[in-house]
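Usage

Read records sequentially. Each one opens with the input sequence:
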Amino acid sequence: MMTSSPFDNKPEECSVCYNDYDDNQLRPRNLPCGHTFCSQCIDNAIKNSQLSCPSCRAEHAATAATQFPICYAVEAFVRKLKNIQLTTEEAVLAKPYEGPSRGISKKLRSLVQEQKSIISSLITSCEEVLSQLGEYRGQLGDWKTQHLQLQDRLYALVEQNKSAMKLLELEDTSVVDMTTQGEEGKTQLQAMLGSLDTVNTPQEVDTTIGTADECSMKIEDWLKKCQELFPNVKTVHTSVKVQETIREALEMMTTETGATADPVHLGDSDSSIMNKVQEITGEIPQKQLTVEDLRRMREPVKRLVEAGRVLAVQEDQDGRRSARITLQDGQLYLHPLLHQPTPAHAHTLQESEVVGVLEPSCTLVFLDLGWAGSTRGRVTIRLAPDTPLARQFLLLCTGQRGPSYLNTKLLQVCNKGGPEEWVEGGDYESNDGEGGARLLPHLRGQYRWSGQAGAVWARWGSWDPRSAQFAIITRDEPDGGQLPHVFGNVVSGLDVVRAAVNHSDITEVTVVDCGVVLPL
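and closes with the structure output:
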């Protein structure tokens, strides 16, 4: 025979602390597993950003109780229960006055109690809707703030446009002035031609030629000045860039003036106000985004990712760090963890949950290389399945243990121009080839040998203090020579590595970004 839990007997109580739920620290909150506990007990149960459900022991990523939704049904039940208790107490107190002497029959008394119950229920409903209105007003305030921020950005665009127009007006004035000077000079030269045709004496020739030489010098100076002045680089560049920016902004506008919104089904009448708002906007409630949402990549989630509002977060002894999640050419990328401010209205996922979707047999990481005079190029590497060096490389691409390959330099090129040419990098400590300490205690394992271009290997082996440094082969070894400790292979971007090798100074080539490709 099953015994009932404390929650079954007293749903108004938290089954952990046995205190009645209230509207403050003991507000009831629902866990994803379906169980409900007070905010205080949830906060107390969170350890290392993890919460184990006191009832079913299901594990949930959590940093604070406030990230779990309030159980309004339990709150409404508690309020209704209190109203019933209050009604009962009032009835007991009023009992001496409800005797036959007052002339109130049992039937009338029942009608009174029924009316009081109706009023109490309406009060509870009012409180629920008032709570929803408060939440809705907060959302309206956020939207007003966003509109003001957008308005400021629009004003900034208008001011940039005005500045560009002012530069163009100054340039136009200068062109008009120079045009006037040129036309006057041309007229004088034409007059000189006529004068030279009519000279009759040596004195006239000498005078006319002197005047012609003077006019010619002025025109030559004018021609040189025109070449030096026009076009004004700043004016032209500013005009073109401002026009491009404004055109892009206008092209992104999808709502035409006066257009009516498409009809949206708002669900049944019992839907809360904020649920209806979310139906209209297509937004995902704050802090409720999941890895599964990323897998499905529906339009609302896609908009969030493209707007830079989806982050993977990690909290440890060094504080809170976050990593960008970006979408490029239909592929999701997770960038390294950094100490950086969280954007307003950002949706966050636990870094461990995001990395947890990676398949050990098909882990793809990326390094973005850049140097002066070039645009960045992406190198994508497939790591060998389940090898310690590959796991270490992944940690240094994501920054999960703190350090990462971000902003590290390439160090040197070996056998440049010859067979089995390779380039080295990965000194995250000193950036000079003397650092690059291991992140994992044991790196020995079964590794393959290779002499093919694109192979990624541990330059100093698995036992050296600099084992975090890596090397990439850029030219095949035609004679069958092979290098040890290969833990990955370049699947795209080998041309980027070869271009870096051909740069005049390899130490100017920097890993400007890195991370992991998410198989979602």
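Summary fields computed downstream for this record:
- Residues 266 and 276 are 5 Å apart (CA to CA).
- The longest strand covers residues 319-328.
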